[in-house]
TrEMBL record:
Classification via Pfam families: Peptidase_S28
A GO molecular-function descriptor: dipeptidyl-peptidase activity
Originating organism: Kalanchoe fedtschenkoi
Highest taxon of the lineage: Eukaryota
Gene3D superfamilies (UniProt xref): alpha/beta hydrolase, Serine carboxypeptidase S28, SKS domain
GO BP, one annotated term: proteolysis
Name of the protein this chain belongs to: Lysosomal Pro-X carboxypeptidase
Keyword tRNA processing listed: no
Cytoplasm found in the keyword field: no
Record key words, sorted: Glycoprotein, Hydrolase, Protease, Signal
PANTHER family: LYSOSOMAL PRO-X CARBOXYPEPTIDASE, PROTEASE S28 PRO-X CARBOXYPEPTIDASE-RELATED
Family statement drawn from the similarity comment of this UniProt entry: Belongs to the peptidase S28 family.
Gene Ontology CC, one term: vacuole
Amino acid sequence: MLITNRLSLLHRFLTIFFIFISISSCALSGRPPRFLGNFAKPATHRKTLPSHETRYFDQRLDHFSFRGDAKFKQRYLISTEHWAGPAQMAPIFLYCGNEGDIVWFAENTGFIWEIAPAFGAMVVFPEHRYYGESMPFGSRDEAYKNASTLAYLTSEQALADFAVLVTSLKRNLSAETSPVVLFGGSYGGMLAAWMRLKYPHIAIGALASSAPILQFEDIVPSETFYDIVSQDFKRESSRCFDTIKKSWDALEVEGQQPNGLKQLTKAFRLCGELKSTGDLNNWLESAYSSLAMVNYPYPSSFLMPLPGHPIKEVCKRIDSYPEGTSVLERIFGGVSVYYNFTGEVDCFQLDDDPHGMSGWNWQACTEMVMPMSSSRNSSMFRTYDYDYTAFKLWCLEEFNVEPRPNWITTEYGGHDYMTTWREFGSNIIFSNGLLDPWSGGRCFLQTITVLTFFYLNFDVENLYPLAVSSRMYQTLLLLSLQKKVWHFKI
């Protein structure tokens, strides 16, 4: 009876989650953008995670070669507090680790923790190789030493890590029949969707939140990301949008004045002397992009300690200065909401990487090549076209490696993606906040009579469906389903 009840509960889970929804059909510099921002700072007070253990797994360095047996310690968090056990075929919820410390992601992924008790599920958070404590070659310095040591930092190797880890875990717990459901947000969401495609025998389904799986080659317009960021600001205040748009020229004019860089260093309270206006531009661009990704309706500390609706607060600050206030003074006041909402920061570092995300530059310079540009009219950022040549030169200078812009679509698909999902993409949720700038690279599903995956839109931000209270998310989900469900099958 218990097994029957557990299977019935899991069936209801799949019935709710893996459903087709009818929707409409689609579509800076040389440095690559990062999913979660360049200059994120951890919260002063860490969140308390539910009961869990931190473990380490001896993981192969290279899953795709039979030469050598080099290994590294892969960290993972595991909670069996609510797991009903193998006898009841209780599920395993596996979060696909992103480009950062896994504890940071576990602290900000409340949805999985909240629904686990209802399904008697085990929760596993494996860390992505080359991030956090999961460093090959014994240390971060050695792992990031050169292109040869970084060569094993790929999405394919990471997916193999997850597959090997969960397979070993199930075997050791005599839980071979326990189904695995994948979760992930942003890059982790891409990994969740791709793992379901590549390892359908290991995972029965995936929730891919804010996963821009189409942000490659020419599948979506290259200006999409920055256009969405800009519209997020414009919807709060057109005056704020215009001020930010004017600020780039103002920065260049000031920087070209005698002692202009020193004046900018003082005006923006930088810890070190500014070397170029480009560095300051990147710092500001990162803040605006990150704000669009974490523009939650409640206070949060995912990237920075922030108030609810932070873009509204930024624009309110920019617009609040009296007539005659300079553009740059307004901009500094606005960006301080992001970088110093608590008021505790004395000066600002332009090259902070507290969450250990610097490996993303390598990934962007090898396989995760996402074309970006900024349009003249719709964007509040500096206008520029996507320049692959400049991007390639930057990657050669940084890593002595040449990007492979066609590899992701070769490995996972992307062009004619509807055919791929129709044939192979069952039991995958694509959930997105339409204010999230990465939503432009989301999967647009056309109306098809029978599919076992769905696409869900909310007018919210990056990772919101994974971060919010499950009650709120499930309510929104069910309200959406009442209006949009066409057909489902298990």
